[in-house]
Amino acid sequence: MKIVYIQPATAEAALPLLYTKPDTAIHNRELPLYLPDFTTDLRGQAVLLAKISKQGKCIVEKFAFKYYEQVGLALALTAYDRQQQLQAQGKPWELATAFDDSMIVGNFMAIKDLSADDAKAVFTQNEVLVQEFSLRNAIQSLPLALHQASEYVTLRTGDLIALPLAADLYPIEAGTTWEGRIEARLNFSVEVK
After folding, report:
1. Contact status, residue 64 vs residue 50, Cβ threshold 8 Å
2. How far is Cα 129 from Cα 126, in angstroms, rounded to an integer?
3. CA 164 – CA 16 distance, rounded (Å)
């Protein structure tokens, strides 16, 4: 099982931004998140996850909906200072994104159970609203994301596609609790130490 993070290609960006995380990147929800020693600037990005339900390679966009049935929320963590150093050196930056516990994954729910057009995702820190998103655009972008990701890597049953909900990166600091909700239902909660 792998996590495939993708920002689909657009008119402005000819190629998608794509990288993978190993299954060890998924944080154990029964434990607090301990800040890693190798960074002093850990940041999180709100993402929508789609769980792949059958194997596919070079998936045609109009049939992509057949390859996933469930979605969830996550925080994709980045050692931002490490990423900046690696980018400045022209090196790959998986060290900054694919480390153990670098993906806070929530519960999954069937897409058919979401409100048709107005499903909302809410992210809070210490019960204070950080950002609220309409999931409509992200869910509509999933077929393109699967199509573009599957051109480069085979998607297998159980893999996760991570699609950013916004470009914002939030500082992740000790002594905080982060929660993600879909339509007021708690999706994940993590205490940072």
Report:
1. no
2. 8
3. 12
| 188, 74 contact by CB (below 8 A) | yes
pLDDT at 116: 64
Tell me the C-alpha distance between 150 and 68, whole Å: 13
120-125 and 128-134 strand pairing: antiparallel
Residues of the chain with pLDDT under 50: none
pLDDT of amino acid 41? 98
DSSP string for 118-154? T-EEEEEETTEEEEEEESHHHHHHHHHHHHHHHTTS-
Structure tokens at 46: 């709100």
**Distance separating the N- and C-terminal Cα atoms of the chain:** 27
**Strand, coil or helix: 116:** coil
CA separation (Å) from 91 to 55, 88, 112? Answer: 31, 8, 41
Quote the tokens at residue 130. 């950080």
Q: Two tokens at 126?
A: 């210490």
Contacts of 155 (CB under 8 A, 6+ apart): 4, 52, 55, 56, 57, 59, 67, 146, 149, 161
- How is residue 44 written in tokens? 């999180």
Task: Give the other-Cβ count within 10 Å of 61's Cβ.
Answer: 14
